[in-house]
């Protein structure tokens, strides 16, 4: 297999978002969980998205895992490496977007990497280096209250500079409007100034096509699905990939019981859980009881098992910013997050042991914990449920999954997802 594009995603929902975008753009794509074992049978594809759970781990570990993924992708001839980060640039001053970008760029022998989280389809745009989420700057969006990495600075040149070894420059929209050559020239100029990364503005899909073409002339870039779209279009335009049908036949219906798990505390997910109450039984996990050592996971699993014979159920730990802050103040941010993720993983394991083969998970870290516990090696990409969220089918067994990024999906996401998982 010779890959046109190798991708390393810093979380599992982000990986399925990117795999969805690449598939829609005509690249035959598979999403793997972690760096694949050498004996993992993969279909013939144009792109592999290696999913890591490296967004919120210490920078040194994120660098090491990303390098391992890069080595695997390079060994399969990847023409370009895309480091997929969140479209809301989720990270802290300790990393990991800067350290991983620096490491992949240096390993590839490149002086500078183009970086943009713009993804206009989901209303993430970058102008003069400032990231907008919908109509508001990042720091005024709900991301300011993210449980693990509150985003309180909208200026990504500053944000990335605080976590990078080399300096960070800007490729402004006026330059992007002049086309890929102008962007390339700006990258060269910034590299001569000693910058190691450049945040690129993008407001419309046509800007992404320009950035994709410019990025493809180098070996490494960093961005969200929007840059993935630009790279995919550039690969097709250059004749390096013959576009495939956007939807492949993923096999027969699976049926049986279905369940949804939500650990994301994003505003979108909170709304979707509220809407799901009308469509299915919903059980709220009590983080305080769980963190106090009570068997909340066991109780929630027993609750679910009593009901899944009658239709789908939803178990959610998700809570609003004030409740999250209270739990974190008492138990610590990471300890609370990990304990809740572990509870979700345990519930998922119990559900699957009792026959659930259709599973929807909301939240990147939560999805990572669940998928790891289930030991799923790779997914093929099915139809799109909502922008950035495809249906996935495991390659090694009959199971449907949807891994939803916290902020993605329409109000009825959970019901929408289950409808596409026959
Ligand atoms: N009630 C709660 N109180 C405190 N922390 C919580 C609570 N519920 C969930 N969490 C934790 O918050 C974190 C949510 O992160 P997760 O990545 O799953 O969602 P997200 O960030 O909204 O999604 P994405 O990364 O896809 O945007 C997890 O670590 C989860 O365990
Ligand atoms: O880019 C995004 O917003 C998503 O794919 C994601 O990574 C959320 O975790």
TrEMBL record:
It catalyses: 3-dehydro-L-erythronate + ATP = 3-dehydro-4-O-phospho-L-erythronate + ADP + H(+); 3-dehydro-D-erythronate + ATP = 3-dehydro-4-O-phospho-D-erythronate + ADP + H(+). InterPro entries: 4-carb_acid_sugar_kinase_N, 4-carb_acid_sugar_kinase_N_sf, NBD_C, NBD_C_sf, OtnK. It holds the Pfam family NBD_C. It comes from the Bacteria. The keyword Iron does not apply. Residues 5-229 form the Four-carbon acid sugar kinase N-terminal domain. Its EC number is 2.7.1.217. Keywords: ATP-binding, Carbohydrate metabolism, Kinase, Nucleotide-binding, Transferase. Residues 260-414 form the Four-carbon acid sugar kinase nucleotide binding domain. One of its GO terms (molecular function) is kinase activity. SUPFAM superfamilies: YgbK-like. Catalyzes the ATP-dependent phosphorylation of 3-oxo-tetronate to 3-oxo-tetronate 4-phosphate. Belongs to the four-carbon acid sugar kinase family. This is 3-oxo-tetronate kinase.
């Amino acid at each position: 297999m010779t890959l046109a594009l190798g991708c390393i995603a810093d979380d599992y929902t982000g990986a399925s978002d990117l795999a969805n975008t690449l598939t829609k753009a005509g690249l035959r794509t598979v999403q793997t969980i972690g760096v694949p074992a050498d004996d993992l049978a993969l279909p013939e594809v144009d792109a592999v998205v290696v999913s890591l759970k490296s967004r919120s781990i210490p920078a040194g570990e994120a660098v090491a895992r990303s390098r391992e993924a890069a080595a695997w992708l390079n060994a399969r001839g990847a023409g370009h490496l895309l480091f997929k980060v969140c479209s809301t640039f989720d990270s802290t001053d300790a990393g990991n977007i800067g350290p991983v970008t620096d490491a992949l760029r240096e390993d590839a022998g490149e002086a500078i990497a183009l970086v943009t989280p713009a993804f206009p389809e989901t209303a993430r745009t970058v102008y003069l280096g400032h990231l907008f989420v919908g109509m508001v700057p990042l720091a005024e969006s709900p991301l300011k209250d993210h449980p693990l990495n509150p985003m309180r600075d909208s200026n990504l040149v500053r944000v990335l500079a605080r976590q990078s070894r080399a300096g960070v420059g800007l490729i402004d929209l006026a330059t992007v409007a002049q086309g890929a050559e102008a962007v390339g020239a700006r990258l060269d100029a910034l590299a001569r100034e000693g910058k190691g990364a450049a945040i690129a503005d993008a407001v419309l899909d046509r800007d992404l096509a320009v950035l994709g073409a410019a990025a493809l002339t180098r070996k490494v870039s960093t961005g969200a699905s929007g840059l993935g779209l630009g790279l995919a279009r550039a690969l097709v335009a250059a004749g390096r990939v013959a576009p495939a049908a956007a939807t492949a036949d993923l096999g027969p219906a699976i049926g049986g019981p279905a369940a949804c798990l939500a650990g994301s505390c994003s505003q979108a997910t909170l709304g979707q859980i509220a809407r799901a109450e009308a469509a299915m039984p919903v059980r709220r996990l009590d983080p305080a009881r769980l963190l106090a050592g009570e068997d909340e996971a066991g109780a929630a699993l027993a609750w679910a098992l009593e009901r899944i014979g009658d239709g789908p159920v939803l178990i959610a730990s998700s809570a609003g910013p004030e409740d999250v802050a209270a739990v974190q103040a008492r138990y610590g941010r990471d300890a609370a997050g990990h304990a809740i993720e572990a509870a979700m993983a345990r519930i998922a394991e119990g559900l699957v042991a009792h026959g659930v083969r259709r599973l929807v998970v909301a939240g990147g870290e939560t999805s990572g914990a669940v998928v790891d516990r289930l030991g799923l090696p790779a997914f093929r990409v099915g139809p799109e449920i909502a922008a950035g969220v495809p249906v996935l089918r495991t390659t090694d067994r009959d199971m449907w999954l949807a891994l939803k990024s916290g902020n993605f999906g329409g109000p009825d996401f959970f019901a929408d997802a289950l409808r596409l998982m026959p």
